[in-house]
Structure formats: structure tokens, C-alpha cells
Amino acid sequence: MAEGLARALAEMARQDVDVLVLGREGNARFVSEATRLWLSGTRPFAPGCVVVRKTGAVHLMTVTDFGVPAEISPACLYPMSWNPANIMGTVAAIPGLSDAERIGVDGLTPLFEQLFTATFPKARLVDGEAVMRAARRVKSAGEIERIRAAISVAENALGAAVHALRPGVREVELKGVFEQRMCRRGTTTPAFEGAFCVVDGDRPIRRVVSERQIADGDLVAMSAGVLLDGWEGSLARTRSCGAPTAEHRDRASRWRDEWALLVDRCRAGALVGDLRATTGASVHGVGLGYEGIADGDALEPGLVIQLELEVKGVLGADTMHIGDDGAEALTAFPYAAAGE
Amino acid sequence: MSNDLDLARMRRDRHKKVVDALDAQGLVAAVLLGQPAVAYAVGARAPAADAARAAHQRMIAIVSADGDAPHLYTTFPEGVPPELPADHVHGALSVEWSEGAEALRDALPDGPIALDEYTMPIHAALDGREIADATALLSTCKIVKTADELECIRRAQSLNEEAMLAVEPLVAPAVRGTELSGAFLRRIFELGATANTVDPIWQVMPARVADGPYSATGDVVFPTPTTDRQLAAGDVIWVDTGIEYEGYASDFGCTFVAGGPEARHRDQAVRWREIVDRCFDVLKPGATAGDLVRAASRDERRRPWLPHLYLAHGIGTNSAEMPLVGTDLGDDFDDTLVLAPGMVLVFEPVVWDDGEAGFRAEEIVAVTDDGYERLSARDGGPRG
Is B155 found in the same domain as B81? Predict the structure, then answer.
């Protein structure tokens, strides 16, 4: 049985959930290891994947077994549909659903809530996202390797963007260079469309690229990432266009001082909310894409997080693997400003 | 046809439609969590991202029926429309957690509201409230486009088509789908696309359905994700791509033949053209989706589109939205869907000769007062 499915089933048992009906692609991928077509942006909840605790089976909404591991039988695949009633009819016919008492869902819409209530009048809908978050939270050695592989692609693609940084290039072009290199390295799906944004003094750094032409002496914040087989590799760095100025060096030096303090606090036992309380810092989980982590959560060995810090026009982020004694950066791209 | 585009006017017109729809249904507010819905009602923008990141960093809008400016919660201040008053722009709410969900609940006016989707903490926080389906509400607003919206779709499509010109010369034996994606993505950003919306598809089609991969419908399998498999001479490749311009989606589909099309490929394209032209012959205000289904199916051995998809779909801030034509919503649905000026249709029938693969392309039109006008400019091939 796939590692993710085993962990999901164990968590279902712990939280007493009979069936999971999942709409979120990361959750579906965790239990199925299937590659389905990537679309950007939020998607409203729909039953795209069903996990039945009693049978241990994963059922997937897909028209084909292309990209679906052989362990999932074709009998467990059901085609997409535009008719929610048809989808619910298909889901209701899955073995083990009719007598489910607690059905976990990772989201809902008013329409699907009505359909669930009508189709499974005796079942109670519970928070399936909490089940999946718990199952996905601590990474195995194999998962760390998959994140490392994604980071390797992201770093290579960021290197191409840094190489293309020269006076006259537009921000949007750097995004294009990053994504083309990502594709050459074998994956066509970004974790997000990157920021390659000129820094405007001490103002907050933009995350939406523009048509702006980058000039000699500009500081450029770069934040980008890829998904390789669904696993995220992402990082952020800030670079000078042309030779770094004295001001750039001052800013970089200040960032490094604050970064060192932040990284030192990033260790097992630290509260996520405390790290986030640092001005300019942000923290989220990294795995099958972006993973949520609450302010009240404490870091623990096996977590992988993205630690990001923005200080006065300098942005940097690394992917950190929390160990027993401190955190190991899985990203290794140099911090130094170009030419420094 | 004017190429005038006024984004502020477009946002104003859309907001008014949502306010009027709320008023008509006796609702006090719409709470919008879906990013295409926020883009529609507010005109706000966030960087495109994978679904998980997009969900955790989602913009949220509250549109009230009193016509006041909407309230927007966002991580991305640079994506906020300039006319939105500063006291209506708020930092993001983490609605993956109960604290954020309760803060959203506390910001809502009393009375019946519409909402498009729940996170589970929002579902818990709103327990006991009267909630209508905001997706259905928005669908009634979105289905008819203003002239500005049509211009956005036209520009998105034009940009998508131009980017494809950079890809076409690369389509040849030994090239990998991933390389085609790279060339395409680079070009769309250079040309000014605000986002890519779907992993570009370059699917090599089998000669016959039975050649696989497995089909859950028994019909043609499409689409499948792009791989680094190398193209071979004679491969029939179905292409499907979509980008975004000012929140509006494009949809460009065509058929490539690696090494160049032969007579049978051209014959299939001619038959595809005949199907679309039969639809165009009946396409005008007052016609129904059912009329289009019947026109497309006339004299065909099988319904000439994929059974899990559609003959045609609308497009806007979602890449597929109402009007949907020929789906499993059924014949009654099609027969009661009446076309009106301003509706947009992306026609994507399929010609399939089992044993000789097939042809698929897409063509976008807007319904006008007395017929239709094309929003896409390039034909779908066969190319190569």
C-alpha cells in the first residue's frame, strides 16, 4: 500500500472517520499518487477522490488510468461530470459509503452540502482537511528526497533567471525564463507564478510581476517555485542588477543578521506563531504543494517548512527540514548579491 | 467592433450586476472565496498559484446588497483595484483556521447571505446561518458579458494565439511535450499574459480508443498531463492551452501532426468545420443549447464531442462556465438554456475515426443581437 494512503487510513482510524471525500488535489495526490491535469487557482469543492477506511480503497475522479498507479484498479476510476447529482450518484455507489457514519470532507459548497445530506441522511460531515493535515504533516525520508528533487529544479530555474537579470529586461520576462527552464528540467507545473520584482526602497516588496524594465542598480526580489510530481521546491533570493551598490550591501548585511537570528529560533519546540511574530517573517508547510500550519503549532522533527524573511527591500526564503537539533536548509542557492 | 477597454467601467458594471442579483433574491451580502468569483465581483488579482497555495492565500470578498463598495481581504495589496476605498481593503484572513473563519463571520451583516464555498472552519463558524448558493447567483451575472469583458476575452485569446506561433515551428519528431510547454510559457509572459491557467496539453492521440490508455467512458481519452515523451513522425497531437488577461481566460485548442498533416487529417478538419458551421447556422439570440446539440449531431454516427465534456462552454473569469452545451446536465437542461446577446461559446467538437485518430480544435464566438461574432482569430489546423 502506498505510504500516504497508509498514513491517511491510520489518521482516519484515530479520528474515527469512515470515509474521506476529497476535493483538494494535494490531498488526492497524497492518498493516490496519481498525476491529474494541473490547473491554477482555487477550485470549488467536488468529490474528486474518495477513501474508504473499511476497504482501504481509493476511488478517483478521472476519465483514464493515465498517470494513475497500477494499485488503483480501473473499477475505482469514475469520469468527471458537470452534473453534481450524477457525481453524488457515483459516489453513493462506492462500496462502504452507504453505511458510513462519519464522512470527512476537505471543503464544501452549499450545493454539495445539500446533496450529501440528501444522499447520506444518517452520516455526519466532519473536517476531513484536519485528518489530511495530520496525516501529511511529518515527512518521511522518501518525501524529503522528493522535496529535494523539486528544489533542485527550482534552484536551477532560479539560476537561469539570475543569469538573465540585466538592464532592460522586464520583470515578466524573468518569470518566463524561470518557467521555460523549469520545463526543460522536466516539470511543467509551477508551485506559483514567481515574483521577480524591482524593490522600491523600504516599501513592501510586490509579489505580482509587472511590465517594468529593470535598470542597472535596481535591487530585484525573486521568489519562485516548482512542483515536481506534485512536490514543492521553492525559495526566494534578492539580487542586484549590475554591480551591487553600497546601499545594496548594507541591506543584504542587515537581512543576513536578522535571518541568522530567525533561523536560530527555527527548531523543534518553537511555536509557529512566535516565528511569525517577527517583523517580515512568514512560515508555511511544504510538501505536496503549500501546506497549512497554525500559529499554535510547535515545530517538531520531520516537519518541512518554508521560512521567509523580508527586511527593508531584501527578500529571502529557504525550505527548512526540522531535525532533532535545529533545522537543516534543503535549499542551497547562494545568498550573495551578484558581483559581491 | 471597438477595441476600447475600460477596466474601471468593467468592474463597476460587474459589481452592479452582483448587487442587483442580491437585491432580487432578498439577500444582504455575497461572501466569495473562489478566486474567479472575487476577480469578477471586485476585480482584484493575486499571483497565479497551485490550488493549495491559492487556497491558503485566497482573496475573500464581501459584496453587500446596499451597493456600497465591496470589502476585500487580501495578501496582495498591489492587486487591489485603485478605486476601492482604503477602509474596504483588509489583510488576508486565514480561513483554514477557526480564528480566521470566526473573524470572517463577525464581519458579515445580519440576514440571509450567499456564499460560494466553505472551508471546514467557515462551515463550522457559520453553523445555523441561512446561506444561499453564491455560485448560482454569480452564474446569472456572469453568463452575459459586457463589451469590456468581451474585449478582455478577445485580448486573452489573441495573446494565446500569438504565443502558439512561437511553439509551432518546434513541433517535430524527437521534440518533447515539456519543451513545447517551456516555449509557450515563456512567450505568454513576454507578451503580457497575467497568468497561465492550465498545464499546457500536447497529448499524442492513439489511432484507436482500444490502444489505450484505459477509458472510463469507453470514448476518447482527453486531456492527459504533459510528459517528456518524445514526439514521433506521424503523431497526432491534440493541443489545449489557456492563459489569463485581466482576469479573463483564453482557450486555444488545435491539432498538430508531427512531420506534417496528410490528406486524411485535412479531411477530418473539414468535417470538424462542417459541424461548427452547422452550429453557427442556428446560432442567434433565442436559439437554445439544444438547438446547437441537434445541429452538431445531425448526420453524425456519434455525438461529435467527448461525453465527459461538452460541445461548447462559456468562458470568462472561469475557463469553463455557463452556458454549458451538451453536457451530462441533460437534454432538458440544454433545451431550456436560451442564448442571448453577450453570451460567449467556445465550440470544441471532436471528429474521431477509430483506427485513424481524429481532429479537435476550439473556436470562440460571442452571441450578438442578430447572430454571432468570432473572438478567436486563428483556425485549429491541422498544423505541423
Answer: no
CATH architecture of A3-137: 3-Layer(aba) Sandwich (3.40)
With respect to residue B1, please indicate whether it lies within any of the assigned structural domains: no
**Min CA distance, A65 vs chain B (Å)?**
6
The helix (H) or strand (E) run that includes residue A139 is none
Whether residue B2 is contained in a domain is answered as no
Residue of B nearest to A130 (CA): B120
CA of B145, closest CA in chain A: separation in Å? 22
The domain defined by A141-329 carries CATH number 3.90.230.10? yes
Contact residues, chain A, for B53 at CB < 8 Å:
191-192, 289-290
Say whether both B65 and B110 belong to one domain: yes
pTM of the predicted protein model: 0.97
**Contact residues, chain A, for B214 at CB < 8 Å:** 64-66, 74, 77
B-chain residues near A70 (CB < 8 A): none
Both B151 and B274 in one domain: the answer is yes
pLDDT band at residue B3 under the 50/70/90 scheme: confident
* B224 within domain boundaries: yes
What is the pLDDT confidence band of residue B1, given thresholds at 50, 70 and 90? Answer: very low
Whichever domain contains B329, its CATH number is: 3.90.230.10
pLDDT at residue A337, rounded to an integer: 54
Q: Which residue positions in chain A have pLDDT lower than 50?
A: 338-340
A63 with B47: Cβ contact below 8 A: no
Same-domain pairing of B61 and B156: no
**Contact state of B213 with A113 under an 8 Å Cβ cutoff:** no
The model's pLDDT over B245-285, given as tens digits with 9 standing for 90+, comes to: 999 999 999 999 999 999 999 999 999 999 999 999 999 99
The minimal CB distance from B190 to the residues A77, A172, A186 is found for A172
For residue A21, give how far its alpha carbon lies from the nearest alpha carbon of chain B (Å).
Answer: 13
